[in-house]
Design goal:
This protein is an alpha/beta fold. The chain has eleven helices and 23 strands. It has helices at residues 17-28, 53-58, 112-115, 117-125, 143-157, 183-194, 245-251, 300-310, 404-413, 457-476, 545-565, and strands spanning 3-4, 8-13, 33-36, 71-74, 82-83, 199-201, 211-212, 218-219, 255-258, 261-269, 272-280, 286-296, 327-330, 333-340, 356-359, 378-383, 417-424, 433-441, 447-452, 481-484, 502-504, 521-522, 525-530.
């Protein structure tokens, strides 16, 4: 029988960026907060001498154990879904700090177009531009309304950046200057300018200089060691929750962190959450944590899973189009080109996770879509992130994938290649959604989340367009041999692509189409808040963290107001 604990003001399910922000802001206002994290605790000391590609990048030391909990996957509703048995298309993080520990640090703001995508599309192109099967909806908030929260998140992280010429209006410059230019980023900048494009340095959570944030937490200057994605930062130079918002919460005395605490159910009565039930994964004991406010701050997929398992909110029904929990699941499309240089070498083995040159000319509605049969676009980046030898063996077309010639060319071209990658936006489709698997369960007896997802005609047309732009760009950089990506086929759960999963609990201003309002408060349970990329009504061409952080600060403000006033927030 579960042991019931003392009631608190706020309980968060997950303690990464969103859980840390909610905890810090609420605790500073005097609210009692308990943070439940199903993984273990972490700190900078855990990352000393972490430069082990095999352990962290290949064997996924910081990731979820998919033998205990995973998802099932299928491309189409008529297929049988099967469990994902190995990390592949995306990486499920686990432990204190969540994906904020092993992220690259790229911290874009979504465009003003993104938040009013349906309205702006119709205004410019008319109703006929909307495609059948695509769920296009506004977010219930504008960029200008969200801008102060973007600003707060960037100041918390000390983001190093250069203003995006296509970005929304900023109230302040980035807290720290952009990262160092390198021969690679300079070459990319020159190529962009030669093509009439407007390059800018990637906004980075790998800091260009030592920085003290408004809460008094210090983030150090990046060492350009190249061990960012899939690794924690031993220098404390990559902004992450364990060196920013979590210490801030702990210093208030109003926050209690519990690790190894796996929440398996949201408890509720008459539409009001009463708390959560969790399992201590070390002892196997069950606990009930009552709370006045329950906040889901776990990864995209788990936020949706918990609502479905707990029967809180209306599940999306593909057959009749009703419901919203599990709806609007989106991913991204990746288009790229690689260039090989016979007579030049580059320090490709050095760098940082968010070191790079970006072009935004083909993102959002930054270009005229009148004569193309798709919407949105993608950001292009020539990254100088640092490549490592196990997972990076680029070779020109026609090279065998094993044997003597492969080894020789792998060594030769390791420092003789550059490329550009485009992250393309993903728009929600009637056949792409999340629900509970009817067959498979996790190690705790809870049904697995089932993902039904495939690329759409919209995705394929966008991918083709971005591939052409990528090839053009790499040629302009002066490569001797240029390769471009293959045509986009069916989505595959196995090869890694990006961990930018979004949707499942979409936000909006219509309770029939959205799970939460613009404070991320559930329409159907006013004391339950769902915070994260699961709230995105679609996925942009950017990395999601900057927008996730802004929404978390907005939600924190709402939770504090709700704790004082109650009722639905407006």
């Amino acid at each position: 029988m579960a042991q019931e604990l003392e009631k608190v003001d706020v309980v968060t399910v997950g303690v990464g960026w969103t859980g840390g922000i909610i905890a810090a802001e609420c605790a500073k206002e005097g609210l009692s907060v308990v943070g439940l994290e199903r993984g273990k605790g972490r700190s900078i000391e855990d990352y000393f001498m972490i430069h082990d590609e095999l352990r962290y990048a290949v064997r996924y030391e910081l990731m979820q154990d998919v033998s205990k909990e995973t998802i099932t996957f299928r491309n189409h509703p008529k297929q049988r879904a099967l469990p994902m048995r190995q990390m592949g298309s995306f990486l499920l993080g686990e432990g204190l700090g969540g994906a904020g520990i092993h992220w690259n640090g790229q911290t874009h703001r979504f465009l003003p177009y993104d938040f009013e995508i349906k309205t702006k599309t119709i205004e410019k192109y008319g109703e006929d531009k909307l495609k059948n099967g695509i769920f296009l909806q506004d977010w219930g908030i504008t960029y200008d309304e969200l801008e102060p929260y973007f600003d707060r998140f960037e100041k918390t992280c000390g983001i190093s950046g250069e203003e995006n010429p296509y970005g929304g209006k900023r109230s302040n410059p980035y807290p720290t200057p952009p990262m160092k230019e390198t021969p690679i980023t300079k070459r990319a900048r020159t190529a962009a300018e030669n093509l009439g494009l407007k390059p800018f340095m990637t906004p980075s959570g790998n800091l260009s200089e030592r920085y003290e944030n408004p809460d008094g937490q210090v983030i150090n200057a990046c060492q350009y060691c190249a061990f960012c994605e899939r690794f924690g930062c031993e220098y404390g130079a990559k902004s992450d929750p364990t060196i920013t918002v979590i210490p801030t919460a702990q210093e208030t005395g109003n926050f209690e962190l519990r690790t190894h605490a796996n929440v398996v159910e949201i408890l509720h009565n008459d539409g009001m959450a009463t708390g959560v039930r969790y399992i201590d994964v070390q002892s196997g004991e069950e606990y009930i944590q009552p709370a006045n406010v329950v906040v889901l701050t776990s990864y995209v997929l788990n936020n949706t899973k918990l609502l479905l398992v707990s029967k809180l909110g209306t599940p999306y029904n593909r057959e009749n189009g009703t419901g919203h929990v599990g709806k609007n699941y989106c991913y991204q499309v990746n288009a790229s080109a690689t260039g090989f240089f016979e007579n030049e070498q580059f320090n490709t083995f050095m760098g940082a996770g968010a070191l790079g040159t970006c072009i935004d000319d083909y993102n959002g509605d930054n270009f005229d879509h009148s004569d193309v049969d798709f919407l949105h676009g993608g950001v292009g980046t020539v990254g100088h992130t640092g490549i490592r030898p196990i997972l990076s063996n680029p070779v020109p077309p026609g090279t065998p994938l094993w044997g003597k010639e492969f080894k020789e060319k792998s060594l030769y071209y390791f420092t003789r290649h550059l490329g550009i990658g485009f992250q393309g936006a993903s728009l929600p489709h009637v056949n792409n959604y999340l629900d509970l698997d009817p067959t498979y369960k996790d190690a705790y007896g809870v049904p697995l989340l089932r993902m039904t997802y495939n690329f759409t005609d919209q995705d394929r047309k966008l991918h083709s367009f971005l591939s052409e732009k990528a090839t053009e760009f790499v040629k302009e950089m002066g490569a001797d041999i240029v390769t471009e990506g293959e045509e986009l086929g069916d989505y595959d759960i196995v090869p890694y692509q990006t961990t930018h999963n979004t949707g499942g609990t979409p936000m909006g201003d219509d309770p029939a189409l959205s799970t939460v309002n613009n404070f991320l408060q559930m329409w159907e349970s006013e004391n339950t808040f769902v915070v994260g990329a699961s709230n995105f009504a679609h996925n942009s061409g950017y990395n999601p963290t900057g927008t996730v952080g802004a929404l978390a600060y907005r939600a924190a403000e709402g939770i504090i107001r709700y704790s004082r006033e109650g009722g639905m927030l407006v």
